[in-house]
């Protein structure tokens, strides 16, 4: 379909991002978790959210449960759909960041170019990439949802790590090894990096 020129003229909002951040007492940030299925993205994001909540920081988790079952329920696991999945999540994450929230987005996001696009949407000063690294064999051993077994049996196609690629981050802000570090240690490592970035000048 040829793209028609749209006449969209954005409104300036009376209350700015800086105003909202001042009200919240901290900056808005996007904490982006990337890693294989079963690597520990949800587990670490949830524990991190609990620790941030206890410090009075405004957070929100975006993950498959609230995105792939709603906003992105029209998308499958083809490379094209994953790209569109991550683009939309980047845009939604950006709204949370503009609201002065610390958004915790936990998606496999296997393609480097898609993660870079999110960094561009949000701005590199507000985007922190967490590589939730865990060997495929360990993720498969955990098989939290029984999907690896199904993928090996050929019941699920395009499965990340088996029949679809995962491009590991080259320069993540935090590199976790969830097969070697406890979830508590993982959260401490992330907090050490993100807390200074949240401070209002
Ligand atoms: N083919 C295939 N490949 C990978 N994962 C699959 C697939 N089919 C279903 N699932 C389940 O969907 C979750 C991944 O969704 P994401 O939106 O994070 O994927 S992506 O970022 O668009 O690649 C993923 O959840 P997590 O285990 O939490 O990562 C899986 O449970
Ligand atoms: N250090 C760790 N960090 C995160 N998860 C861990 C860790 N060690 C073991 N696990 C286990 O690994 C599994 C990770 O599953 P999950 O968080 O759902 O992964 P993902 O969201 O990446 O699919 C959980 O069963 C969790 O208890």
Automatic annotation (TrEMBL):
<feature type="domain" description="APS kinase">
    <location>
        <begin position="27"/>
        <end position="176"/>
    </location>
</feature>
<protein>
    <recommendedName>
        <fullName>Adenylyl-sulfate kinase</fullName>
        <ecNumber>2.7.1.25</ecNumber>
    </recommendedName>
</protein>
<dbReference type="GO" id="GO:0005524">
    <property type="term" value="F:ATP binding"/>
</dbReference>
<dbReference type="GO" id="GO:0010134">
    <property type="term" value="P:sulfate assimilation via adenylyl sulfate reduction"/>
</dbReference>
<dbReference type="InterPro" id="IPR059117">
    <property type="entry name" value="APS_kinase_dom"/>
</dbReference>
<dbReference type="InterPro" id="IPR027417">
    <property type="entry name" value="P-loop_NTPase"/>
</dbReference>
<comment type="function">
    <text>Catalyzes the synthesis of activated sulfate.</text>
</comment>
<feature type="active site" description="Phosphoserine intermediate">
    <location>
        <position position="109"/>
    </location>
</feature>
<dbReference type="GO" id="GO:0004020">
    <property type="term" value="F:adenylylsulfate kinase activity"/>
</dbReference>
<comment type="pathway">
    <text>Sulfur metabolism; hydrogen sulfide biosynthesis; sulfite from sulfate: step 2/3.</text>
</comment>
<dbReference type="Pfam" id="PF01583">
    <property type="entry name" value="APS_kinase"/>
</dbReference>
<comment type="similarity">
    <text>Belongs to the APS kinase family.</text>
</comment>
<keyword id="KW-0597">Phosphoprotein</keyword>
<keyword id="KW-0808">Transferase</keyword>
<dbReference type="InterPro" id="IPR002891">
    <property type="entry name" value="APS"/>
</dbReference>
<dbReference type="GO" id="GO:0019379">
    <property type="term" value="P:sulfate assimilation, phosphoadenylyl sulfate reduction by phosphoadenylyl-sulfate reductase (thioredoxin)"/>
</dbReference>
<dbReference type="GO" id="GO:0070814">
    <property type="term" value="P:hydrogen sulfide biosynthetic process"/>
</dbReference>
<dbReference type="GO" id="GO:0005737">
    <property type="term" value="C:cytoplasm"/>
</dbReference>
<keyword id="KW-0067">ATP-binding</keyword>
<keyword id="KW-0418">Kinase</keyword>
<dbReference type="GO" id="GO:0004781">
    <property type="term" value="F:sulfate adenylyltransferase (ATP) activity"/>
</dbReference>
<dbReference type="InterPro" id="IPR050512">
    <property type="entry name" value="Sulf_AdTrans/APS_kinase"/>
</dbReference>
<keyword id="KW-0547">Nucleotide-binding</keyword>
<feature type="binding site">
    <location>
        <begin position="35"/>
        <end position="42"/>
    </location>
    <ligand>
        <name>ATP</name>
    </ligand>
</feature>
